[in-house]
Amino acid sequence: LINGQFGLPLFIVCFGVTLHALDELLVATMLPAMVAEIGSLNLVSWTVGVYEIGTVIFSAMSGLVTVRYGVRVPMFFAAATFGLGCTVSAIAPNMETVLLGRLLQGFGGGGLLAISFIACAVLFPERTLARAMGAISVFWGSAGFVGPLLGSMFVNSFTWRIGFWVFGVAAFLMLPLILLRIKDSKASRQPSDVTTDAYPFLRIFSLSLGIFLIAAAGARVTAIGTPLLICSGLLSIAIFLRLDARVQKNRMLPQKPLSVVEPIGSALVMIVCLAAATVALPIYGALILKSIHGASPLIAGYVIACPAIGWASASFLVSGQPEARDRTLIKWGISLAVLGNTGVVYAIPNGPIALVALCALIEGVGFGIAWAFIPRLIRHLSEAEEIERNTAAIPTAQAIGYALGAACIGLVGNWSGVADGRVDDISYFSASIIFMACVPVGFLGLLSIRTFVR
Questions:
Q1: Helix axis angle, 225-245 relative to 387-415, nearest 10°?
Q2: Are 435 and 271 contacting, i.e. CB atoms less than 8 angstroms apart?
Q3: Which of 110, 109, 400 is nearest to 240 (CA)?
Q4: I need a labelling partner for 302 at 20 to 30 A (CA). Which of 190, 232, 379, 409 fits?
C-alpha cells in the first residue's frame, strides 16, 4: 500500500478523512475564543447543526454521485468546498458568516468522508482493502489527540481565524494531488439509468429544512414562534420520511426506519437517539469547562476529545471478536456509552474536570465496543437486496441525530439562559439543564435496541 502505485492515493484518502475528523474537534476547542470575539452565544449550537446538515446532504448523495461521475471529480469538488468554507469562516465578521462557512465545511467534509470510504473499494486491490480501512482508522483516531492541541495552539499563540486558514490551505493543497494521482478506474462506468431524476433533491431539502426550522426555534425562544417552528420542522421531517418510503430504487433509508419492532428500524432509532444524546459535549463542553471550572483551551479540548480517544482505542482492542458475540458486545457497549453520558450530567457542572474526562472516556469506550459490530449485525439481518441501503443508512442516521440533537440542545441552552449571559458567565443551572436534557434521549436509544439484539 505504500509503494509508488498506492502510497499517495492512500495518503490522499486518509488526509481527507482527517480533515473531517479534525475540523469538529478544532472548532469545539476554539469556540469560547470565537464567541468572545464576535458574540452570538445563542448561535453556538448552530456551529454543529449546520455542519451536520451539510454532511447529511452530501453523504446522502455520495453513492449516486460516485456512480455517475466516479471518485476523482466528487472528491475534488468536496475538497474545494471544504477549503472555501474554511476561508469564509476565517474572514467572518460575525457568527452568521461563520455559520455559512460551517455549512460549506460540512458539505465538503461530509463528502470527503463518504467518498474516501467509497474510494477504498475503487482504488485499492481487494486483498489490501482491510489494511486501507485500518489506515483510515489510525488517522481518524489520531485526530482525537491532535485536534485539541492544534485548537489551543491557534487560540493561545495566534487567533482562532488562523485555524480556519490553515485547514483551508490544507484542503486546497489536496486539489492538484487529487487530479494527478486519483486514477479513477470506474469513472467510465456510468449506467444509463442514473439520471438527474435519481438524485433525492426534494427529500434532502425536506430533511434539511426540518432540521433548520428546529434549530431556528432555539435561536430566540418565544411563546408563539418557538412552538410554531418546532411543529413546522417536525412536519418537514415527516414529509421527508413519507417521500423516502414511497421511493423504491434509491431510498435513502430502509422501508420502516423508525419502527422499533423491526430489527433495522430499531438499530437506526438507537443510532439517531445516541447521536443526539451525546452532541452537548462538543457544543457546550468547552464553554462550560472554561466558565465554571476555569479550564484552558487545551484541557477543555482534550476533555471533549475523550470520547473519540476512547472510541478509537476500544475499537482497536475488540475488532477481532467473532460474529457470535455481536449482540452481546453491542448491548454492553451501548449500555456503557449511556452510563458514561449520564455521568457527564453530574460531572460537568460539579467537577472535578478529571471526572468529566473519565465519564466522557467511558462513553467513547462504550461506543468503540459496540460500533464495529453494528454494521455487521445489520448486514446479517438484512435481505440481500437491502444490504447496501441498510448499511449506508448508518452514517446518514448518525448525521441526522447529531443535527437534530444540536438543534434541540441549542433550544434548551438558550431557554435556560445561556444566550442572556457572556461566554465566561454560564450558570450552574444552565450547565445542569443542558446535559440533563440528553439523558432521556440516551435511555430511549438504549431501550430501542431490544429488537435489534434479540
A1: 180
A2: no
A3: 400
A4: 409
Cα–Cα distance for residue pair 214/232, rounded to 1 Å = 8
Task: Please report how the helices 129-157 and 7-38 are oriented relative to each other, as an axis angle in degrees rounded to 10.
Answer: 30
Q: pLDDT averaged over consecutive 10-residue blocks of the chain (454 residues)? A: 72 84 79 79 76 77 71 86 91 87 88 77 68 72 75 80 89 87 54 50 83 74 79 88 78 76 86 88 83 82 84 78 82 91 88 90 89 78 71 75 81 72 66 86 88 83
- 227 by Cβ neighbours in 10 Å (0-12 / 13-18 / 19+) ranks as exposed
Nearest in space to 52 (alpha carbons), one of 92, 89, 105: 105
By the 8 A CB rule, do 56 and 204 touch?
yes
Q: Are 374 and 394 in contact (CB under 8 A)?
A: yes
Return the number of other C-beta atoms located less than 10 Å from residue 162's C-beta. Answer: 15
Report the distance separating Cα 108 and Cα 339, nearest Å: 34
Q: How far is Cα 152 from Cα 163, in angstroms, rounded to an integer?
A: 10
Describe the chain by its helix, strand, coil percentages, rounded to 5.
80, 0, 20
Q: Is the full-model pTM beyond 0.90?
A: no
* Dist. CA 301–CA 290, nearest whole Å: 11
Distance between CA atoms of 359 and 364, rounded to whole angstroms? Answer: 9
Residue 162 one-letter amino acid: I
**3-class secondary structure, 100:** helix
